[in-house]
UniProtKB/TrEMBL annotation:
Domain called 3-hydroxybutyryl-CoA dehydrogenase reduced Rossmann-fold: residue spans: 341-409
Similarity comment: Belongs to the 3-hydroxyacyl-CoA dehydrogenase family. Belongs to the thioesterase PaaI family.
Residues covered by the 3-hydroxyacyl-CoA dehydrogenase NAD binding domain: 10-185
Pathway(s): Lipid metabolism; butanoate metabolism
Protein name: Hydroxyphenylacetyl-CoA thioesterase PaaI
Matches recorded under PROSITE patterns: 3HCDH
GO biological process, alphabetically ordered: fatty acid metabolic process
UniProt domain 3-hydroxyacyl-CoA dehydrogenase C-terminal: residue ranges: 190-286, 410-491
Domain Thioesterase residue range list: 552-624
Gene (UniProt): paaI
Entry keyword set: Hydrolase, Oxidoreductase
GO MF entry, a single one: oxidoreductase activity, acting on the CH-OH group of donors, NAD or NADP as acceptor
Taxonomy, superkingdom: Bacteria
Length: 651
């Protein structure tokens, strides 16, 4: 398809930030451009501002004086919408208000010839909603430029349900002729970039809200390990938290308040307090003070003798018995006698370590371990101090700056990349755009170091779903749920596989809990089901039946206790050591009612000698509204002699 001919005039309606930028692009590409704005003098002021920008481009040697003059002579401020008659393409960039845009398009339909293409630069409104009532809705499409339009190359060409294919093709060709990189998107909330980018901010805010990691550390890991050009907080401070939150809220609302997109409470508070970012003197960071230092381990000489690497492809180099830097993949491990260093797969270091012979220290994801300057690591909370120091010393010896993180599921970079990849896959699966266009849009629209779809495929979709599953079990089943298509993609993916030792321990945990469950008739009689187990973790569900409620329709507290206690028992026995309860406390937070599906999520907090501590949170599980906490339970356990299933290590 050919682009719109240069001889055809282009109209721009709305002469604010975007309209002025788009007018400049169209004039520079050789079109006569007519700029109209409803506010008196706004179009003339925008044209004047473009002249000045063109003059600055000449001063900086980026444009020839004749080119700037030609572009300037092609720009006209016009006083009425009727002056756009004769334009072959009109691009609307007025306020983001559906009723204003609808009225404007009705006006444009009356003024412009039947062949004129009408485009909207909306960031968040539906093209169908804007065009729906027009006689010729087929000629309306989205042409979504990014700010600043003269500089940023990406343009999303957005097709609504009524948009003619030829109109979308024409806009793709025209954007390309104007020096832009067009991608095609269906008119769905957030199109590509504003939808797929949500987890970049969402995960960073969740980490900050956890109170266990500070903003500067999150940003440092995203940049120095993940290869992102800017950290999530630095970028949100630059964009403005009001703007960033408005996009998050609009995508969340448009998806029926899907918990995947739930906006951050902390960001809501920043906006309410007027801490909007750089433009208001500060947001997450103060605008006029030096950036706080990220958490960084002190240099240490500690090392535990020989470290041996293994992995496939160009995994950890093994030179004369000494392991070097791992490669960019997640298929490697480096072991000393007491410590095993592994890339995170979403589960905690405590879960990996389980009852195994070595302390597992997890390494956060890096874009490329060979060139990363910083790595984040996490060890089980009660790991011997000398094991953590040895891991730090070894990694410092490889030239990394090391951040020791708390033992969080998915750490920082891995959870960010896994959720971005899943959101990208979801956009592809729901027909928003092709995988290539999603990746192009994210690299150009957000400067990501790698397209998130291609990144997910390279890491392995089963690695991506593994991280999401671990986050779902530990934090929020609704937010991190894996779509059916993504699960299928992971099942046919032979990219990443668990290493044998981890797979064996998972298998043992599953078999031990099944053996225990088979003998637990009481839990089964209450309709409880084991949803998930891994070493030290269990998720058990129960539906509140009519015979479980009291006279007020509220579930008996004793039955909520029984559910938490069962999850505690399953988690405690996952190491295949017979483990019994020594005591437990419960705090009830909210009532559960008939029909509610309850989930008890148990995590072992401590295991040492023969005793253990396990925390259980009972949630009311509602896939859409997220989870509400019903009760908090802490159990103390003790191992007694014997195993639940024959233990191969012992036979
Ligand atoms: P802006 O507030 O800078 O400019 C809007 C202009 O539209 C104003 O000059 C206003 O006088 C004019 N206007 C309002 N109603 C009008 C009408 N009925 N007829 C003619 N002119 C009218 O806004 P902006 O930031 O340039 O955003 C414009 C559009 O572009 C919005 O739809 C926005 O979502 C979208 N967008 C903005 C950005 C961004 O970063 N600012 C990026 C991409 C897309």
């Amino acid at each position: 398809m050919e682009a719109i001919a240069r001889s055809v005039p282009v109209g721009v309606v709305g002469a604010g930030t975007m309209g002025a930028g788009i007018a400049q692009v169209a004039a520079a590409a050789g079109h006569e451009v007519r700029v109209y704005d409803a506010a008196d003098g706004a179009a003339a002021a925008a044209v004047e501002a473009i002249y000045q920008r063109l003059a600055r481009a000449v001063d900086k040697g980026r444009l020839l004086a004749e080119e700037a003059e030609d572009a300037a002579t092609r720009l006209h401020a016009v006083a009425a919408l009727e002056d756009l008659a004769g334009c072959g393409l009109v691009i609307e960039a007025v306020v983001e208000d559906l009723e204003v845009k609808r009225a404007l398009f009705a006006g444009l339909e009356a003024v412009c010839g039947p062949d004129a293409v009408l485009a909207t630069n909306t960031s968040s409104l539906s093209v169908d909603a804007i065009a729906g009532e027009l006689a010729q809705a087929g000629r309306v499409a989205g042409l979504h430029f990014f700010n600043p339009a003269p500089v940023l190359p990406l343009v999303e060409v957005v097709s609504g349900a009524h948009t003619d294919a030829a109109v979308a093709d024409l806009l793709v060709a025209t954007a390309a002729a104007w020096g832009k990189t067009p991608v095609r998107a269906a008119s769905t909330p957030g199109f590509i970039v504003n939808r797929v980018a949500r987890p970049f901010y969402g995960e960073a805010f969740r980490l900050l809200e956890s109170g266990r990691v500070d903003a500067a550390t999150v940003d440092a890991l995203l940049c120095e390990s993940g290869g992102f050009r800017m950290g999530a907080f630095e970028l949100a401070d630059l964009i403005g938290h009001d703007v960033n939150l408005a996009v998050s809220r609009s995508v969340w609302e448009a998806f029926g308040r899907d918990p995947r997109f739930t906006p951050s409470v902390l960001q809501e508070r920043l906006v309410a307090d007027g801490r909007l970012g750089r433009k208001s003197g500060g947001g997450i960071y103060a605008a006029d003070a030096p950036r706080p230092e990220p958490a960084t381990a002190d240099p240490t000489e500690a090392n535990l003798g020989h470290w041996l690497g293994s992995g496939d492809g160009d995994g950890p180099l093994t030179r004369a018995g000494a392991a070097g830097r791992p490669s960019g993949t997640v298929h490697w491990r480096i072991d000393s006698d007491e410590v095993s260093l592994r890339p995170t797969d979403g589960r905690t270091a405590a879960q990996h370590t389980g009852g195994g012979p070595r302390t597992v220290v997890l390494v956060d994801l890096a874009l490329d371990y060979a060139s990363a300057t910083r790595v984040g690591i996490a060890a089980p909370e009660h790991a011997p101090k000398e094991h953590v120091e040895a891991a730090v010393g070894f990694l410092q010896g490889l030239g990394y700056v090391v951040t020791v993180l708390p033992d969080l599921p998915g750490l920082v970079v891995a959870r960010t990349v896994a959720t971005l990849a899943a959101t990208a896959a979801d956009a592809v699966d729901s027909g928003v755009a092709t995988a290539d266009d999603v990746d192009t849009a994210m690299r150009l629209g957000t400067s990501y170091p790698r397209g998130p779809y291609e990144w997910g495929a390279a890491l392995g979709w089963n690695w991506v779903t593994g991280v999401l599953d671990a986050l779902a079990a530990a934090e929020d089943a609704g937010r991190y749920r894996v779509s059916r298509q993504l699960r299928e993609r992971a099942e046919t993916d032979d990219g990443w596989r668990e290493d044998d030792e981890v797979a064996d321990r998972d298998d043992l945990a599953r078999r031990a809990s099944e053996a225990m469950w088979a003998a637990d008739t009481a839990s089964r009689a209450l309709g409880m089901t084991i949803e998930q187990v891994s070493p030290g973790t269990a998720v058990v569900s129960m539906r509140v039946r009519p015979d479980m409620v009291n006279g007020h329709g509220v579930c008996h507290g004793g039955l909520v206790f029984a559910l938490a206690d069962s999850a505690f028992a399953v988690a405690g026995n996952t190491h295949n050591r017979r483990t019994v309860a020594q005591g437990a406390d419960i705090t009830f937070v909210a009532p559960a009612r008939e029909g509610d599906r309850l989930l008890a999520v148990a995590h072992e907090k401590f295991r040492g000698g023969r005793s253990g501590i396990c925390d259980v949170t009972v949630y009311r599980d509602d896939d859409r509204a997220g989870r509400a906490t019903i009760a908090l339970f802490r159990g103390r356990s003790r191992e007694i002699p014997g195993t639940l299933v024959p233990d191969e290590e012992e036979t």
